[in-house]
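Forwarding the complex inputs:
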Amino acid sequence: MAEPPDTDRGSVNLRLPSKGMSIADVQAWFVREVLPLEPILMQYLQHNWRNKSELGDLRQEVYVRVCEAAQKEVPEKTKAFVLTTARNLLINRTKRERVVPIESAADVDALGIVMDEPGADRVVIAREELRRLTLALDRLPPRCKEAVVLGRIEGLSRRQIAQRMGIAEDTVRQHLIHGMRLLTDLLHGDSPDVGSFS
Amino acid sequence: MSGSHLDMRSAEIEAEAAAWLEQKSFSSWSQADQVRFDAWLSQSWPHRVAYWRMESAWARTERLTALKAPAPRRVENSFVRQRQLFRVVAAAVLVATAGYLSFSYFAATPMTRYSTGVGEHKVLQLSDGSHIELNTRTSLRVSKGAGARKVWLDSGEAYFDVKHDAAHPFTVFAGNRRITDLGTKFAVRKNVGEIEVSLTEGKARVDAVASDSAEGFAVLVPGDVALATPAGVRVVHKPIQELHNELGWRRGMLVFVHATLADVAEEFNRYNATQLVIADPVAAKQKIGATFPAHGINDFAALAQTVLGLRVQRRANEIVITR
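Prediction (whole assembly, two chains):
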């Protein structure tokens, strides 16, 4: 983890400015800095890639690339770095597949996104967050929502949910897995038309 | 990245990530499961990012539990009583410090004050099994007596490890905020005009002392940091590791991850009589990752000089750093 075992002896461990990170640090950075950019990233990918069924794969590829890079060296400006990575990915893919040309050259600047604006959207008023969660929950299919409500809000286990709903445990499992995936896209994707459900 | 990398690969991985998270959250989770899960996670970056992404979204839904049971009215009432009592006691404290003594309320709600000076760290063991750790320059009062589990944080920062007891909620008052544990480990820091609550384990509720406002209420889950200002409560979610780093003071350590020298100086200055001054705007923005003893102001100065190549001047009560 981030703390070396010798810290308690009071020794000093210094990592130089803007060098690489441990996996735990990468995770922290990814959750804190990169995930809040998902609506912007998805907007960018949608505008510049015709095949919508590939958006999820592209998103994953961008995330993998930025995390691998961050492990070696932390990028200074996360937003610029994420979008540039996305652009490069699209360009390479276009070249390789010699198919669908990227519209308007996948120009990051063309989106008019201010590159180094601080992520003010990261901070959410608690109440607003609750409202957003409730809206996301309401968009789940009825049985799926029921399972998630029983599990997450009522705190029941998978078995208890199965008893309550009168269905097989494995069906509950499917509902919960489905619910988790939908909520993940809804909550990170933010804007309603973003996020590809499969 | 080759062709096979596409065709629904991410969807498959997401399904796997969801299956792990579902198992972990809703069914039994053995040591063997953990081992298999760790192996899966470290197998590839796509596994990691898919799981991290899902886990962080799912962590946010914990807040939905706020919908389950709104705080029972009874708590609200006893709370109002408590508030009046608090006012009276505050008055009593004033009277006492003015040199007069004894107020009958002290007998009704005995309280003990604990405080620390600059750079001090104190641990209080409470009779209910909970414990409180006071950070540098902190002052708080603890109610005594059966069932009364109340703490008033008057200044500074403290960490609370609470033994949960539904019948006797553990409540921390800071400024005009109240933090009620629902089985918890958390830290509370009182800054000027702002209360910061960081939760590392369990669940807690932050709300306004003024019982009329449903406005600034938040249920915190692990990783949440609530910032309460007069305007309301904002909640930021941070990785747990980051919170543990911020709680490094519990072991007498300050842990910095990509912190600017300005932040580092500010943090050191909480713990030391000698103050650090970064007198150069460019140097102040330079970032480091490092762990220091809270009193290791000289270690820091030495590193600034030798490793970062900065100029260090020592004066009577301060160390000035320039380029």
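The domain at 126-189 of chain A is CATH 1.10.10.10 (Arc Repressor Mutant, subunit A).
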